[in-house]
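User: I'm writing a short report section on ligand binding and want a predicted complex to refer to. Could you take this sequence and flavin-adenine dinucleotide and write out the structure as tokens? A short remark afterwards would be nice.
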Amino acid sequence: MRDRAVAGGRCKEAAITKRCSGFYKIFCFIDIDWQFKTMPQNHTGFALVNKLNDELEINAFLYLPDKVGGGSAGSVVASRLSEEPCVTVLLLEAGAKKPPLLNDVPGLGRFFWGTDIDWQFKTVPQKNTGFALVNKQVPWPSGKGLGGSSLLNAMLYVRGNRKDYDNWAALGAKGWSYKDVFPYFLKLEDNRDFGYSLNGYHASGGPITAEKPGYHPEIKNRILEAAEQLGYRVVDSNAARQTGFHDLQGNLRNGQRCNTAKAYLVPVENRTNLDIIGGAHVKKVVFEGSRAVGVQFDYKNSEYLVKARREVIMSAGTTNTAQLLMLSGIGPKKHLQKFNVKCQYIFNLSALKVK
Ligand SMILES: Cc1cc2nc3c(=O)[nH]c(=O)nc-3n(C[C@H](O)[C@H](O)[C@H](O)COP(=O)(O)OP(=O)(O)OC[C@H]3O[C@@H](n4cnc5c(N)ncnc54)[C@H](O)[C@@H]3O)c2cc1C
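Assistant: Sure. The structure tokens for the complex follow:
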């Protein structure tokens, strides 16, 4: 705790320096065993954490960003933000901090669907599919735990199509053109297959490893040869052309799954300005007026409120981010009214610009 108090003091000092004047840095901080009472207030004093059920009030430490969801996106953002010593980050993840050891085995990813590291969502009953499923409800796997869906995805290392990025940019998503995102593809990558580093589209030394699976079935080369004989190209789908046959690379490291927590959080887990709480299920974003000032979450059968001095960042995945926003009163008015959720902010879907 002492280290953290010191870090908090440093943060306040640093806040007035030019380097940190971006102000994206103030978040409330919690420790996993709630020892905040011992935190000297004069080192922090920026935020309070209230344990709602028993009215216990704890002086807490200050964070810069308060993050919800330690999945693929959350792991990256928490790691990058906490590179700045003056930024304190609290990362709240509903699932466990570590997946079972067998999760490292790439071929077993599918077997984790429907387990504790999956939210176990199902679609509503379908009209035209799911005939063999109970109620025609199709499983909708979504990772739960540090690393998020990268704990149970297929690990295919595919960047996406250049044209999609350029279209987004043309629609107003500034900074999302292929040219803009390409340097970040290089920055994140540690390509372990020699030939790939030569075509100008790959890099090494980044946190996310990419390599071909170690298993090469005999038929693979035959298929690629046949494709070439038929006039198809064998391509690197992350380079200049995507159409063709390709010998895939995966997000693998020495043959094991390289989930995003492994890539971005494990190497920095000892940073004193980054706190990660597993098993913290965020229920609501708390607002003061139209400003998000903290989150309410369940942890070990108690309910807590943590206030962020600067920012609340949501990265709870496609489904849960939308759900959490609605639970917080942000969403289509009619839908919120149906479930008696008080509207904080009503948006008109057609006018909504998604960043
Ligand atoms: C079955 C499957 C196969 C896929 N295959 C590939 C592939 O081969 N290649 C590829 O590039 N992509 C693949 N994807 C897609 C890729 O995994 C996702 O796009 C990516 O992981 C999404 O990242 P995210 O950060 O948005 O969400 P997630 O990684 O899902 O992270 C969300 C995190 O938020 C946490 N969370 C949610 N709600 C709360 C809450 N209320 N409180 C606290 N924490 C919360 C979750 O537990 C989770 O850890 C696949 C996805 C799936 C599901």
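A remark for your report: The chain has eight helices and 17 strands. The helical segments are 2-15, 72-81, 162-170, 178-188, 218-229, 260-265, 317-327, 333-338.
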